[in-house]
Amino acid sequence: MIRGFEELESLVRKGARKRLVLAMAEEEDGLKAALAAAAQGVVELVLVGNPKAVREVAAHEGLELGSFRLVPAEGEKECAARAVELLRAGEAEVLMKGKTATSALMKAVLDSTGGLKGPGLLSHLTLIQSAAYPKLLFMSDPGLNIAPDISAKAAIIENAVRAVRKLGLYKPKVAVVAAVEKVNPGAMPATVDAAALSKMAERGQIADCLVDGPLALDCALSDRACAVKGVGGEVAGDADILLMPDIEAANIFYKTVAFFCDARMA
User: Fold this and answer.
1) Domain chopping of the chain, boundaries
2) How far apart are CA 227 and CA 44, in angstroms?
3) Of 2, 41, 135, 205, which shows the fewest CB atoms inside 10 Å?
4) Which residues contact 215 (CB under 8 A, 6 or more apart)?
């Protein structure tokens, strides 16, 4: 199992180089990251955006664009559409967001005629490495599914499990997060979903993982909290994946960790 970003980066460097397209490349952080990946030989880079603006950003940040392909496009909508078009044409394999808004990029990805969406549900998985937790932690879904029903939540779990298995974690522990550990059908419907998902995994409807819920965040991550509350189980206090009840909870958690915690995220 990959235990940190350093091991993850080492694994990526050992793999085949991928062609990455950066949508609306005139953005400092995205351009820096993409160029750094290219410098390490991880990706072959294609930049989509306003050529003058991209070069100005690169010059301001002291970045060398070298001979990377620069595909002209103006504005969020055109940049997103052009980047997706390159993937559909087989000219790139990895899509990365630059300055374009997530909503514009996802609209292009999910477009019924020119998009990339295949069968199944698309979801967002976040990776967190924190000194406060002894292993990598994954969390979903802070970016795509607004108020997933139980079927969507099961699909989100399955997506996350497929991803972490590629990193060597073959039986991940999934905590279905709620505010409390007790099922409260009237006031807290998320607890009902959590209990049902746990039973679905127990009966094999959700495969290749251990699922438990509802678990409050402290009992998902802390043995001490579990001992205080009398909460047991294989997942409690040792979660690999957090499934949040909705996009609001997930997005708030994501940004809290990003801004207030000493953590690396992807």
Assistant:
1) 17-109, 126-265
2) 50
3) 41
4) 175, 176, 177, 178, 181, 194, 231, 235, 236, 239
The model's pTM is 0.89
Q: Which helix (H) or strand (E) is 110 found in, with range? A: none
Q: Rounded CA gap, 232 and 226, in Å? A: 7
> What is the CATH topology of the domain spanning 126-265?
Isopropylmalate Dehydrogenase (3.40.718)
SS3 151: helix
pLDDT reading at 1 higher than 80: no
Instruction: For residues 143 and 125, give the distance between their C-alpha atoms in angstroms, rounded to a whole number.
Output: 8
Q: What is the pLDDT of residue 7?
A: 86
Spell out the alpha helix ranges (H) of 75-132.
75-88, 102-109
Residue 27: the pLDDT is 93
> What SS3 state is found at 167?
coil
Token pair for residue 25? 């490349």
> What are the pLDDT digits (tens) for 234-258?
999 999 999 999 999 999 999 999 9
Give the pair of three-digit tokens for residue 250: 């997930």
Contact (CB, 8 A) for 58 and 49: no
Which tens digits make up the pLDDT trace of 128-157? 999 999 999 999 999 999 999 999 999 999
End-to-end Cα distance, the chain: 17
Neighbours of 53 (CB within 10 A): 15
Judge contact between 62 and 50, C-beta under 8 A: no
User: Which helix (H) or strand (E) covers residue 195, if one does?
Assistant: helix 189-202
CATH architecture of 17-109: 3-Layer(aba) Sandwich (3.40)
What's residue 6's pLDDT? 87
pLDDT value, residue 12: 84
Tell me the C-alpha distance between 45 and 91, whole Å: 11
